[in-house]
Amino acid sequence: MAARRSAALTRWRRGAVRRMVASREAMLTLVARLPEAEVLRPRTIDRWSVKDVLVHLLSCDEETLRRFRLLARGQGDRIYWFESMADADRFNARSVARGRRLGLRTVLRRLERARADMIARFQRLPTAALDDPSHAYPVVDWLPAPGWSHERDHASEIRTWWRTQRPGRRRARRAPGRYPRARSPGQGAFRASAGPDDCRHPAAAEADHDRQAHPGHGHSRAEARRAPSAIERNLAQAISGSTCKVERANVAKPQSVPAMTRSRPTTSA
């Protein structure tokens, strides 16, 4: 039983890596096709610009990295979880406001580097740490949101917005060489382990196995608080996916930054 459980977690990790690679590659490719002026245009994605969305995703990656550092040190109990929409909105306001000081190329480079670092640390975590019952929320429950599903939601919003733009703005040429190319899953630090793309909760994958074996531009700080409305999610679902029980999350309010945590300053690496 323990061996099958470990094998299921290993398969889940491989699938998770593949999806983390794919979601970031898709986002960078999408942004590379947009004119820079449109990426910087204020209030195009609700009250955020496309660049604000990218900064938001970067902050999610950085917080996930801090979470992985705590888990690697055996300090998963010191992760701070958002407890309300207001808590998440304060995090959004601070991170987006800070990110408006950065240039677009800097944000894009950091997005690529942060995701590569995140994947590297994730791959080094002990297998048992992925579903440790002593943790408030196991990695297998919370990682899908900051790992790939949240980014896919934002990418969908950007595509929907861009399809509604006037033809003249859509035909605007982007400056050549402005954006780094997204790495494919087989290149550099984004290389994903070979294996099936199975990102279901390992318990579900194991059950299937058993059945088979036994038959900053014009924005105010206040505006930075509001994430695109279509991305708001129920906190319980956002933190731990479809397998989460509402009582485990304490609250059932929508959250702007699904499944993210903010490590206390004294515990961050």
Count of helical regions: 12
Q: So what's the overall shape? A: elongated
Order of helices and strands: HHHHHHHHHHEHHE
Q: What is the CA-atom radius of gyration, in angstroms?
A: 19 Å
Q: Determine and state the CATH class.
A: Mainly Alpha
Mean pLDDT: 74
Biggest sheet overview? 2 strands, antiparallel
Distance between the termini: 35 Å
- Total strands: 2
CATH architecture: Up-down Bundle
Number of domains: 1
CATH topology (level 3) name = Four Helix Bundle (Hemerythrin (Met), subunit A)
Question: Beta fraction of the residues?
Answer: under 5%
Can you list the strand order of the major beta sheet?
1-2
Structural class estimated from helices and strands: mainly alpha
The percentage helix is 55-70%
> Which segments are poorly predicted (pLDDT under 50) over 5 or more consecutive residues?
175-200, 209-218, 229-269
Tell me what you see in this structure.
The chain has a single domain, classed as Four Helix Bundle (Hemerythrin (Met), subunit A) (Up-down Bundle), CATH 1.20.120. 55% of the residues lie in helices and 1% in strands. It contains 12 helices and 2 strands, in the order ααααααααααβααβ. It has a two-stranded antiparallel ribbon. Helix 1 packs antiparallel against helix 5, helix 1 (2-32) packs across helix 9 (202-213) and helix 3 packs parallel to helix 5 (104-124). The longest helix has 31 residues, at 2-32. The two termini are 35 Å apart.
